[in-house]
């Protein structure tokens, strides 16, 4: 039996090219609808993957914060070690740094206010832009819907890649923090052992 198989999954038995084209046109909407369903499934899986990466990023952020707290504790212990080894030198150094920190804090607060104001302004503008874009980019037929869905899938893939890069950067920073903390702990331990029983004013 002479039967030809269509590339899109159905058979044409004894049909002409015109009939095949007509059949394809009549089923075009079905194919697009099926493609849209497949894209939505891919978007759903991508969304779950992105959420997982973001959640991991939040956990890594907590680890970074904890390590920063440890670094602050090490800063404090370093000052204590200096105060024990050289009391008078530490006293004058502390007074000088206190004055510099007060000036730096005032400048930082001033910059932070302007920075936050700028961010709020940008976010408001971004919201307006997105709203206008949604009004303009309204699909009017099946092909436009398919093109829009593919574009959304592409944007989602870019977002996943961006979040993955951020996570890798966080891991790299954490590794650096851990290495630095370990070195500082060893150094401070050595200083404490070396200064045991020895106390100088300067």
Automatic annotation (TrEMBL):
Stretches of the chain forming a coiled coil according to its record: 143-170
GO cellular component, one term: plasma membrane
Keyword Oxidoreductase: no
Keywords assigned: Coiled coil
PANTHER family, per database record: SYNAPTOSOMAL ASSOCIATED PROTEIN (PTHR19305), SYNAPTOSOMAL-ASSOCIATED PROTEIN 29 (PTHR19305:SF9)
Family the entry assigns: Belongs to the SNAP-25 family.
Annotated protein name in UniProt: t-SNARE coiled-coil homology domain-containing protein
Organism: Albugo candida
């Amino acid at each position: 039996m002479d039967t030809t198989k269509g590339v899109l999954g159905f058979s044409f038995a004894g049909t002409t090219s015109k009939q095949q084209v007509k059949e394809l046109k009549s089923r075009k909407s079905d194919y697009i609808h099926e493609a849209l369903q497949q894209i939505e499934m891919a978007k759903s899986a991508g969304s779950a993957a992105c959420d997982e990466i973001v959640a991991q990023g939040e956990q890594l952020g907590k680890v970074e914060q904890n390590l920063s707290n440890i670094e602050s504790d090490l800063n404090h212990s370093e000052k204590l070690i200096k105060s024990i080894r050289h009391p008078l030198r530490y006293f004058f150094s502390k007074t000088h740094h206190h004055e510099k920190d007060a000036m730096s804090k005032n400048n930082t607060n001033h910059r932070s206010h302007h920075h936050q104001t700028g961010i709020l302004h940008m976010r408001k503008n971004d919201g307006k832009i997105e709203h206008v874009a949604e009004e303009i980019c309204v699909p009017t037929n099946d092909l436009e819907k398919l093109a829009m869905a593919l574009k959304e899938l592409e944007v989602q893939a870019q977002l996943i890649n961006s979040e993955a890069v951020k996570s890798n950067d966080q891991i790299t920073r954490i590794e650096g923090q851990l290495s630095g903390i370990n070195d500082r702990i060893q150094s401070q331990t050595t200083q404490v052992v070396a200064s045991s029983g020895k106390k100088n004013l300067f």
